[in-house]
Automatic annotation (TrEMBL):
<comment type="similarity">
    <text>Belongs to the peptidase S8 family.</text>
</comment>
<protein>
    <recommendedName>
        <fullName>Peptidase S8/S53 domain-containing protein</fullName>
    </recommendedName>
</protein>
<dbReference type="Pfam" id="PF00082">
    <property type="entry name" value="Peptidase_S8"/>
</dbReference>
<feature type="compositionally biased region" description="Basic and acidic residues">
    <location>
        <begin position="406"/>
        <end position="420"/>
    </location>
</feature>
<keyword id="KW-1133">Transmembrane helix</keyword>
<dbReference type="InterPro" id="IPR023827">
    <property type="entry name" value="Peptidase_S8_Asp-AS"/>
</dbReference>
<keyword id="KW-0645">Protease</keyword>
<keyword id="KW-0378">Hydrolase</keyword>
<keyword id="KW-0720">Serine protease</keyword>
<dbReference type="InterPro" id="IPR036852">
    <property type="entry name" value="Peptidase_S8/S53_dom_sf"/>
</dbReference>
<dbReference type="InterPro" id="IPR050131">
    <property type="entry name" value="Peptidase_S8_subtilisin-like"/>
</dbReference>
<feature type="domain" description="Peptidase S8/S53">
    <location>
        <begin position="146"/>
        <end position="387"/>
    </location>
</feature>
<dbReference type="InterPro" id="IPR015500">
    <property type="entry name" value="Peptidase_S8_subtilisin-rel"/>
</dbReference>
<keyword id="KW-0812">Transmembrane</keyword>
<dbReference type="InterPro" id="IPR000209">
    <property type="entry name" value="Peptidase_S8/S53_dom"/>
</dbReference>
<feature type="transmembrane region" description="Helical">
    <location>
        <begin position="627"/>
        <end position="646"/>
    </location>
</feature>
<dbReference type="InterPro" id="IPR037045">
    <property type="entry name" value="S8pro/Inhibitor_I9_sf"/>
</dbReference>
Amino acid sequence: MVSADIKERIYLVEGKLAMNKLLRRNVVFVSLLVGLTCLFPVNHSYAEEEKQVIVVYKNKQGEEAVQESDAAIEEQYEQLSAAAISADTETIDVLKEDPDIKYVELDSKISISTSDVVDKSKTPVLDQWNLASIQASAAWEDGLTGKGVKIAIMDSGIYSHQELHITGGYSAVDYTTSYEDDEGYGTHVAGIIGAEHDEHGTDGIAPDADLFAVKVLDDTGEGYLSDLLEGINWAISNNMDIINLSMGAADESDALEDAVQKAYQAGILLVAASGNEGAGHPLDYPAAYESVIAVSATDSNDNIASFSSIGDKVEFAAPGADIQSTYLGSDYRVMSGTSQAAAHVSAMLALLKQQFPDDTNLQLRTRLQQYSKDLGQEGRDALYGYGLIQFPAPVQEEELVSNDSGRSESENAGDEVKEEKVTTEELRILADDLKLRIDELADLFAAYGFDLYNYDNLNEVNDMIYQSINEVSVHFLLEKAGMDREQLDQQLAAEDLTLDDFHTPEELSAYIKEFEQRIENEVGTSEGNDEEVNTTQDIPITDDQTDVNPINTPVEADSAEKEKVDSVTVLQQVDSDEKAKINLRTVQQADDSNRETDEIIFTYKSAGKPYQDDQQGKHLPDTASPIGNMIVAGGVLAVTGLVLYLRNRRTKFRSK
């Protein structure tokens, strides 16, 4: 007979076994549920991720396509025909395929590099050697202080320093509506341009200029490309005269290039730092864009500073080493960089804008060449550009004519006012026909010693391009033929000819065509063509030239002089239709390659950051990501649960 104590123990054991069975069933159920839960949402996780991008559209239809899409519009840039949006990959892809959308570009992070050449330690007020270097006091003596000129300083803002009078501003960053500087750099740049002359602290070059603080960087010196575009859009809307861009980036941006071009076309002068990576490195952007004035930095001995980036696109040089200026609070700091140099050029342009108020931005940009001291190699070079800015103009020859006076400064006051020179609008139309910007056409003229703005009318400019033999017209002819000047000079020397032997561009064009045909025929002969080569068959003969030997009839050359005469005779046999117009092609071809960069480092000193691969939109394999780990864990749990379930069923079956 089983005792009550033993029965009680048996009941307890059976109860525990029942509870264990129930626990195992629950574990199996939970494992299966967790496993399935982890597996289901994975395929949907990245589809919900949104990116912020810049969309630039071609027309009103493109703008409407953006507005009607599933994207969230973060900022609309009316002046730039663009918008910053947040959207998923599917929406972005749809916009990319829209024929009314010009392109879509990832919004890039911008920041100050940690390698900035900046001394932020407190320093006593020192002599401002930079003002003596550019002879700023001579401008002040002439009453030039930048009065009435509006300068937008795109930076970290401007602090309310006792030396600075801030006319207004705008904040493009998200965390504050205030344009007050909370980083320090923007205030330093502003002081170089416009610190007051109050006999204490520092003096600015254009103390009466209207300073506008456009805050595009936060208190850590970081922001986004979309913020910079917002600032440029504001500057265009508010009719700024000058935009100072004391920042730079190593990578190009289509959106930024389009934005600065729009500002330039709106009549604004744009000035930017060349970069602080030294010789051997390309210029930073936006300084490298044609619509922007690139500035290199000099030291107190007028030598190029060791940190300054240099290159063919440098347009001017200005002091940039150990520059004293205003800082946060009531402080002053000494800083170095091409950013400081750019501020000097912006201020000098403000002085010239006050002196020549009716000059366009194109004319002021060209005029500044006169207010530059030529250093380094003669003429424009990769170190100083046109030279170190200086007032008054070191060279007075061939002065430009300002629209406000209609005469050169060298004319006597009593002389009759001359008619205005060739107008900017006429030059713009001409440049468009040539598929060039006006500044590119002006630079081409200047490279050969001609001043595009110094002609009395457009006919004189056209004569330089179409009617006369000169370096400019020869340049375009060679561009059309795909030849360089060295090839032409070698061919002319081989035939004892010079450019003086050609009276019109048409004659030279025919000669170049003959030379091209001759090369083609020689190539054909070398490949085994036994037919007689006719080197002049493409040159037409007019009806009144039938008495001349047929072009395909061999002409005996008894002497070098006879060859020369015959060559010129053939060149004169040009169809009159060819004299109507010379087709010209653009000097530079646009780069249509797609550029999508995850991060562009904008810095006051240099790009300062090694190239980074685009990581946005790229994902690690699922097994290496948090969600991937959940998938693996879910799978393991599901398998474990299934095994336990089958084992439990098997045990139960055996027990029966």
